[in-house]
Please model this.
Amino acid sequence: MQENINIEQLKDKGFLTIKNFLDKKEVEKIVNRLKEVPLENIGHGDQRGYFPVTAKAKLAKFLKLDFKSLITSSMLIKMAEKLELKKIAENFFKSDVNLHMIDSYYSPVSKEPCIDWHSDMTFKPGINYNINIASLKFFFYLTDVQSKNGCLAYVPYSNVITKAVAELIVSKKIKYTPYWDLQKLRNLVLSKDNLNQILNVTGEEKFEKFIENTKFIENKDKDTEKFDLEMGRGGVVIFDEFGVHRGSMPSKTSRQVLRIFYRKK
Model:
């Protein structure tokens, strides 16, 4: 699998996609193992969709006699090892990494997006914030997705901008204002009080690409299909969680995903 991974593109644009990363037999095996996720409508953030990866978490499941979760976790960890996901993450970070989290969730048919345009790594005052805990995420589609039907979208180079903002806030070179959602992030970086500081970190080229690529958020529907990552089941989106992304509405069919995260040790 390693030869298919363009690490430089991943680091530069913040993401890459690989179709059929999982073959049909692997997908079926995972779907059968995770069949309770759609049956029980386990959504994003539901703890029932999390599978233990640390010794402490595994012990907690054992004490609760949740052997099914432990078996599922073991299967998914072995799959990750076979796919050499850890090596990919180590090449990305240029560092040893730990498996941080595995989860799966289900989104039923809806006219609402799975999640709006945002960045996962945004600074919040009062929290002991460490920029180095950002994850590299492996986002596996277990169902087919298309534009306006459940696919992930990612704004190229947005990882560079959001990381620069976080670094500048942490170092107290710019003042914090909320910027989880894309509109607020644009307001922050275009502010006359912040612009030069951010440009000094990002450079003009990537900053201008980001501003151009995100103009759509000023439109009435605040969305675009330009960055949609359509894919069949078994495909994977590998991405830096600093970058701006969203999950489109599953307007035609439900969506199920499997996510595996790695962080620097």
About this structure: The domain at 8-264 is CATH 2.60.120.620 (Jelly Rolls).
